[in-house]
Design goal:
The protein is an all-alpha fold. The protein has one domain (2-184, 202-421): MFS general substrate transporter like domains (Growth Hormone, Chain: A, Up-down Bundle). It is 83% helix and 0% strand. The protein has helices at 2-33, 36-63, 66-89, 95-123, 129-145, 147-157, 160-183, 197-209, 212-240, 245-255, 257-269, 275-293, 299-327, 333-366, 378-381, 387-408, 411-424. α6 packs antiparallel against α10 and α8 crosses α14 (333-366). The longest helix is centred in the last third of the chain and has 34 residues, at 333-366.
Amino acid sequence: MKQFMILWIGQLISSIGSGMTAFAVAIYVYQLTGSATWVSVAALLAYLPTILLSPLGGILADRYDRRLMMILGDSFSALGLLSILISIQTGHGGVRPVFIGVTISSIFLALLEPAYKATVTDLLSEEDYAKASGLVQMAGASKYLLSPFIAGVILSVSDISAILLIDMATILITVVAVGFVRKRIQVMKPSTNNFNFFREFAEGMKSITRDAGVSSLVVLMFFMCFFVAFIQTLMVPMILAFTDAKTLGIMESVSAVGMLIGSVLIGVLNIRGNYARILMISLMVAGIFMAMTGTTTNSWLLVVYCMLFFTALPFVNTSADVLIRKRIPNDVQGRAWGMISVLTQTGYVVAYAVCGVLADYVFGPLLMDEGLLAGSIGQLIGTGEGRGIGLMLIITGIVMFAFAFIFGSRKSIQGMERSTYELAHH
C-alpha cells in the first residue's frame, strides 16, 4: 500500500495541474469565439486521441514495464502544453494552436492511463481494491475540486500561460514519483517475442465479451460517459452567461466538494459488497441532480445541485471499477482496460461532437427571449443566453436516470455480485 500511496500522490498532483489546464483552455476558447461548439471541439480533441489509442497503450502495458510507460506518457504529454505556450508567447494565438497542443498531449496520455490502472492491481491485494479506487476517485476529483478555484484566481491576475507553466511543473513531480516507485518494485521486462498486435487486441476484447456482466457494464458506462460529458462541457458556457471566470472557478470548485465527499465516504466505509446495486442507485441519483442543474440560474442552488451530482459519481466509478477488476485476470488487465477505455469513453467523444452544436443551433434559439419555447418552458426555467443549455441538461438528466434503471436492473449486471464472490472463493 505504501508504494501505491507514493504513486497516488504523484497522480493527485498531476490531476490538479491537468484540471487547471482544462479549465483555462475552456475559458480561453470561449472568450476567443463566444461559441459552445468550439469549447466542445477543444474537449473532443483533448480526449479523442487518448481514447482511440487506449487499446495500443493497454497492449504495451501488458508487455512492457507499466511504470516506464507512465513516465513516458506523462513526460511527452508536456510537449503539447509547451507548443501552446510557445504559440501564445510568440504572438500566434487563437484556437488552432490550442487544438494542436491538446491533441499532442492526448496522444501521449494514451500510454499512461491503461498502465496506471493495471499498476494498481500490481501493487495491491484484492481486499484493498475498493479503498484504492476511492483514493483514485479522490485524485480525479481534485481537477474539479481544486483546479478550477486555483486556475480562476490565477486567471484573474495573469493568463493561460501561467497555468500551462504550472501544469508542466506538476508533470515533473509526477514523473519523479513514478520513478521512485519503479526503483523499488520488481517490474516485468520488455518482451519482443511473438508480438502480434491483432492477436493482442483480440485477447483484450475477448476478456470483455466472454463475460456477459462485464459486457453489459461496459455498455452502461458508455452511456454514463455520454451523459456526464454534457454537464462537463456545457457548464462553462451556461455559467459564463451570467457571471465571470473567477466566479465560475469558485462555483466549480465548491460544487466538486461532492466528489471529495463521495471519495472519502468510500474510503472510510471500505465497501465490500452490493456493488451492482450501489452502481444503479448512485447513477440514478446523479441523473436526478443533473436535471436539477438545468432548472435554475441561482448560483447557490446550482452549486448545491452540482455538489450532489458529483457526490454520486465516485460510487458509480468505484462500483464499476471493482466489479471489472475482480473479473479480469491480471495478465490481460492492461489490454482489458485499454479496450474498456475506448469503448466507454467513446461516449464522451459522441457527446462532445454533438452537444455544442445542439446548444448553439437548436436549444439555444428555442429559449431566447423570442424563441419558440420562451412562452412555455421559458416561463419555468428562464429565457436568454445559456437557458437552452439548461433545458439540455434537464433532458439529459432524465434520460440518464432511465438508462441507469433499465441497464442496472439487468440480470447480467446484478449477477456479477454472486459470480464475483464465487470467483474469489474458488
